[in-house]
Structure formats: structure tokens, C-alpha cells
Amino acid sequence: xxxxxxxxxxxxxxxxxxxxxxxxxxxxxxxxxxxxxxxxxxxxxxxxxxxxxxxxxxxxxxxxxxxxxxxxxxxxxxxxxxxxxxxxxxxxxxxxxxxxxxxxxxxxxxxxxxxxxxxxxxxxxxxxxxxxxxxxxxxxxxxxxxxxxxxxxxxxxxxxxxxxxxxxxxxxxxxxxxxxxxxxxxxxxxxxxxxxxxxxxxxxxxxxxxxxxxxxxxxxxxxxxxxxxxxxxxxxxxxxxxxxxxxxxxxxxxxxxxxxxxxxxxxxx
Length: 269
What we know:
Elements: E1 9-10, E2 33-40, E3 43-52, E4 58-62, E5 65-71, H1 76-85, H2 87-107, E6 116-119, E7 122-128, E8 136-138, E9 143-146, H3 154-184, E10 190-194, E11 199-203, E12 208-212, H4 220-232, H5 241-250, H6 254-263
């Protein structure tokens, strides 16, 4: 019998790592930690070592670098042999994390006159326009003209721009959901926008769908993937092969959009 709890679609910088690496289980409070280094080939790599109650050595590479969790009884020599054995994977993931952090820094939104942010996958420019009486979107120049004084604060600019983006998100997401619901043969009860920090969408067995309004930053193909993903949960409240077959029935190449979503670096502000 399918579970009743929401099925999340996570946005996590380490999501893809867990498919190929042992996941570190949380250490008990007060577990010993230390910073160590070793050479992997020609590269000196620092890592955090946590001693925990577990049966095996685990690795994860995230924004803070390499973390290793090992049983208390395993000697350092054995831990380092395991690190050398996984050396190629560790170096590759460290490079990927560094590149991701660089993309995140480059994508930070500056809430000021002339600031740029993604809208349906393409940049728009924020323009302070005191003479305007309402927010004006110029699709030709891709300018979002905000009726604010030239000395408006970053908070004023952000709040007005985000309110406009949220309204556009609701306008766009609803017909997408209706189209995919019909194609999948499911009934959507309600659609709500969320500002979740850790997921792009969720679905409940009663037909309720929640979508993160910040999806409006992404390309239509990525939005379609998230919409189809959540609506497919109304047929399969899991991530079984049957679930992915359901997604594929309406998006044959969904893997491409799923991977693109994992690589995106929109900064939540």
C-alpha cells in the first residue's frame, strides 16, 4: 500500500554522490573529529576524520571538502589505504565541487539597478523606473522595470521582483500541471507554491502538489521535469522502476533534465 507522506524531489549538492559512495551515518554527539592530510598522487588532500559507531569506512565529498567516517577501532593506516583506493573518485568529486562553488558564486543575484537574474533559463535585467506605476516586463529587451526610486534598497528591489516572479510562476505552473495531469491520467486537487530550501516539489496522495516558485528561474524543460515527476507520484508514491516508467511515458528524455537540475546553481535568497 503506497505511503501517504509527501514524496520530495530534493535539491542537494551531494545528491548524486550518494549513488556512488558509501553514505556517512551521523556520528554520536561528542564523536572525535580531526583534520588530516594525505597525498593522492600529486595532490595533497585535506579531510575531516570522524570516529563513529559504524562497521565500515565511509566517504562523502561536499561543499566543505572530503569527510571520512570510520569505526573507532580502524587504524589510520587502513583508513589511508581506503582513501588511496578511492583516490581517483575523490579527486574527481573535489574538482566537481570546486566548479560547482564557482558557478554558485557567479550566479549570486545582486538586487540593484542593472542586476541580472535567470528567468526561464535566460537572463533578465532589473531596471529601476520611478516613472512607472507598476512592474513592466519588456520581453524584447528582457528588462524588468520596477516602479521604485533610484535609491531603493536591495530589500525593496528583491521583494518587488520576487513578488512578480512568484505571480508569473503560478501563471505558468498551473497550465503545465493540468497538461501533464491529463497526459498521465491523474487528478490534481490543488497546486501551491513553496519557498522550500531543500526541495523543488512534493506530492501528496490526496492530489495536492507543491512546487517551488524558484523553478521560474530554470528552462521550461527543467520545469516540465519537476512537474511530471510530482504528478507521476499520484500514480506511484515511490521511486520504483514503475515510477520512472511513468515519468518516461510523458518525458522520454527526462534524464537529461534531471541531470541539468542537479547541476543548476541558483542561489536561494
